Amino acid sequence: MKRTAGGQTADASVDRPDRDREGIRLLRLFAALVLVNGLLLGPDYVLLRGEGAAWVALEACLLVAVFALLPRSRATFVAATAVAATVAVVFVLEIAETATWLSLSRPLSLYMDVWLADSVHHLLVGALGAVPAVLAEILALSVLVAAGALVVFLLVPTRGEVGGAFARAGVGAAVVLVTVGFGLDRVERLNARIDVPVVRLVRDQATRLVRALGERERFDADVARAPGDYAGLPGLLEGLGGRDVILAFVESYGASAIDDPRYAPVVGPRLDDLERRVEAAGLHLVSGRLVAPSQGGQSWFGHGSMLSGLWLDNQIRYDMMLGSGRETLVDDFERAGYRTVALMPAIRMAWPEGIRFGYEEIFAFDDIDYAGPPLNWVTMPDQFTWSFLQERIRPLDASRPLFAEIGLISSHAPWTPILPVLDDWDTIGDGAVFAPWGNAGETPRELWRDSDRVREHYALSVEYAVHAATSYAERYVDDRTLLIVLGDHQPAPLVTGEGASWEVPVHVISGDPNVLQPFLEWGFVPGAWPSDGGSPLGMDYFRDWFVRAYSGAEDG
User: The pTM is what?
Assistant: First the structure.
């Protein structure tokens, strides 16, 4: 073997560039492992806030190990592109899963929830504005594409890069890690740090798909059990004595607003104020609880459950109810001679569901003469909605009693700005009086940087909503009115914390104590504070109970 003056062999000097290239290749594969591992596990880490989150994705180890053995070729490039696309899709789905848990307190079901992408877009538009929302979406997509391109670049060998001992050692380590990882079921502490996110995602979505496909059978069984046609019921709703009935849903008014020590000091005094003021106005008040079918959003599940008498906790059941031809509480009131109205200021697009529910009149955003400012996502404040009900809807046809369903939205996220309740209702008019609050308070972007401030504003927004309802009741509710005010669902887990119940408060007000008696017999209690004992029923029980409780005998 030929030696140089320095004592080294010529062959060794030739091999050094190859070893350098092997080292570079190993570094690139390690970078690919870190990147793919981060994309697969990052969303879960956010959801768990790092507590108990996995550190290693076994699929990332296997993928990098395989590519360490592949030569540079067109087939390798195609395979790397497919892997990058798959990782990007898994990342997006894991982000969606995380967002679903954080906002709705339930897992993602692709089959049932794919349409929520449009809702997310509209929420971004409401929070940021149309142009910033689109720019944010384009930026997010660009970052994802760039990450995918980087994965491809790191996995595919460059010209001159070689495999060799270092790469083989890396492959061996990855294979050992994967083998050990799959055998760690008995080593609980270490097993918790190793995950198979791709396998888990496919398994979970397949399980949820199978369950979703079985919803038809379960729904049909529920329809067969639940009464749906009260046409033959004697004295249908005669127990109401021809009183106006107003069913008002308060956005995100959940039991946590009055039970959680973080919010009760803000909302609780407003309930005490509600009790004092309705009593001073000669009114009577009882309160209770119901269980909503959703948390953090999808208010229409609660509305639909109350009206139909069916438990609607996912979009498939809701759609099947709409397509079933089943009668609803709206039909019951119409059959009893009532004028039926929906007042929905948050609805800005076509709403065929309202027609399906059978309302005679629907007042959505475009049907409401509001001249005030939008308030971020909130199209108009609750006090204006109450005023519009009193000034524009109730006087339209005095020959028939009114059943009105109202969706109140001031307590919808992002919970900024917080408005005062105006003392002089005569100044509300077309809502122009609210102009000073159009750009008041913190922007959503500023507020949502601090989760403690978000929670503070949530409590203040519910306090405002209850205050506005109180002010309306003391002025406009009498012995010819039955006002039912309830929450549509609990707010997101960010506000309630993990494991909160899905209960919502219900307040019922009238000038005639006799008309409240059925609620007391149902378990409601006098006053503004619902009992926190017992097991409240779901919203789907309301229709059958209400119709039967107020039918059969006229309450003059």
Answer: 0.76
